[in-house]
Amino acid sequence: MRRLARRGAPISAAALSLCLLPAAADAQIQATPSRTFDKPERSITIAVSSDLLYDTNVARGSEAAARLRGVKREDVRASPSVAADVALPHGRALFTFRGSIGRDFYARNARLNRERFDLAAAATVPLPFCTVRPEGGFIRRQNDLLDLAIDPLAPAASANAQTTRRAAASVLCGPEVDFRSGGFVSYADTTNSTALRRPLDVEVLGYGSEVAFVSPNVGVIALFVRRDEFTYGNRFLAGSRDPARFRVTASGLRIDRRLGARLQLIGSLSYADVALPPALRGGRELDGLNWSLTGTLRLGDRVLLAADSERAIEGSPGFLANFVRRTSYGGSVTYAFSSLVHLGASLSRRDRRFQLAPTQPAPALTADTIDEARLWLDYQRHPIRLRLSAAYQQRDADRDLYDYDGMLVALSASYLFKR
Fold it and tell me: pTM here?
């Protein structure tokens, strides 16, 4: 068993978004794609892609873990896909759609072959003195086995399609510049295709309100309070027919300051209170500060730095746990050699602590840390985009079965249509 890191973890969301930046017309690195008060222009982009991935550890665990999961550790995966990015403004209203549809094909682990959907749509609807924003999303994919518990009695349970349906709406009232107030509600339903994993299905209902100050010179500063109610509909508390229900209440501050071309920041800081049923204990260990911070800094015309950190309390659709507290840190640098060629590198760490359900199959994972180092090289000459990337991953867990290290090497080719 490797020694667990004491501090939190990585995230590469910023790094990933930087990988997707288009090459600037004159060999410059662009800043983040949007700013706080940007008015999007009409655009439609369609990408047809083919990805090839060589993975030295599909099992995301030791050799014993691979046997228990019933998979071969080393494999090659092909993933053809079609993606769309659409923005349709109409006066002050806006409709957006981002989505991809594809399928994964494994050379040695054919039972992990699965369709892959990731779709999201949103609208901004201006009304007298208020703005309404409805949105929805749908995700379906084979679980990365990094996010799936090992079931020693059911190797077939590793072939699991996880589906998430999400809907949300918010309303914000007041002048466009000055103090505004509003509320929001969201609903997400995550289900597993494998019968043995259906006790992990979870619904999350969120709602809350905020008061914000909006200024072109300052950005957005808001005070908020929100509550998330977690329901595991196929899991029941001992001695009861009621499904397991838990609640997290948080209040805090968020900022959105994407005003300049050089430095941009988005972040939030809140205090969370976790409420468990009286029959369960341990929720207080998750009480405390949560945060989310993303920043980018452009150095000259060729270098873009990004950093990202987050701590959040989430549901656990892949492990038999009431909650997961995830802490992540990461950073990346992207350098433009020319208008056609970009080179990037990133480091990230992700730390997870699981608040376990009372009944656990052996072996139960209670904590892990995943480190990753990644390099990528992009070549883009419209309408062709090529990417070569390599990553090294290492996982330290409190169970030897989940410890692993591995390499991932990927080659991606895309053809883009833009209007």
Answer: 0.87
